[in-house]
Amino acid sequence: MAFNNLIGNDKIKSLLQKAIENNNILHTYMFLGIDGIGKFLFAKEFAKMILCSDANNKPCNKCVSCIQFDSNNNPDFTIIEPDGKVIKIEQIRLMQEKILEKPIGGSKKIYIIRDADKMTKESQNCLLKTLEEPPEYVVMILLVQNEGQILNTVKSRCLRISFEKISDIELKDYILKNNILDNIDENMLKLCEGSIGKAIKLKENEILYRSLIDILENLDKLDLVEILKKAEIIYKEKENILELLDYFNVIIYNIYTKRLNDKYLNCILLVEEAKKRIRFNTNFDMTLDNLLITMWEELNN
Predict the structure, then answer these.
(1) Given this model, what pLDDT does residue 127 score?
(2) Full set of structural domains in the chain with CATH
(3) 199 partner at 20 to 30 Å CA-CA among 53, 85, 104, 127?
(4) What pTM was estimated for this model as a whole?
């Protein structure tokens, strides 16, 4: 059954399934939503269904097209990804050259553009030529996290489909069933923000995140020397510090909801101030020192 291996966004599943059943496939779709929410998996499954040669059971997983698709070898399916930090105009031009070649295995050619919001303006304006007059056999799916980076002229030529965050219940069930984490507490669940991708990333940094929880939940119980010693792990994460500070506030707010101590709300403001300083390239170690010390003083005075 189509989409049965994907969780959440049942309305979108139904919409895409009906498009297949009614043979009402549009030329251009834009899948909108936060990173890791499932846009790419939905786009791949939709592409597989479109390319499947079985008339009644899509995807059949048995035809040549499905077998080629599963082995990443379907000649009528292409993924465009950023070259470095952006999708360059040269990539779009190359894609347009390939688009002019008719399908090899069936009646459609599918192009997924990942992180389409990373297309330069020049790339987007170049893409417009294809969006305005696409060959009848072409289907394009643009995956977008930051819609504000997409030109209105591009957006107006796409069917925009917005993905909702996966519910905490569904996400927790998926995490445990697929052994992404052995257990997941409320803080870690909120950090995932309804995104399987973020849950997988959380797994990669599980020790770090659990250390942050330990530090912040004990700010008012341990002396400052112990807190600073426990926090040594944070100083090694300079590249990810803004993301970690966001997690600080998730944890702090959850502690506040349980203890109802307004001092924790003041700590959130201190974290936000630290984030501003880091963005302005203030000394990294000094900023973290100051944050931890001022939060400790706030909760212990």
Answers:
(1) 96
(2) 10-162 (3.40.50.300), 205-300 (1.20.272)
(3) 85
(4) 0.73
Q: What is the pLDDT of residues 186-241, one digit of tens each?
A: 767 777 777 777 777 777 777 888 888 889 999 999 999 999 999 998 888 888 88
CA 100, CA 97: separation in Å to the nearest integer?
6
pLDDT for 242 equals 85
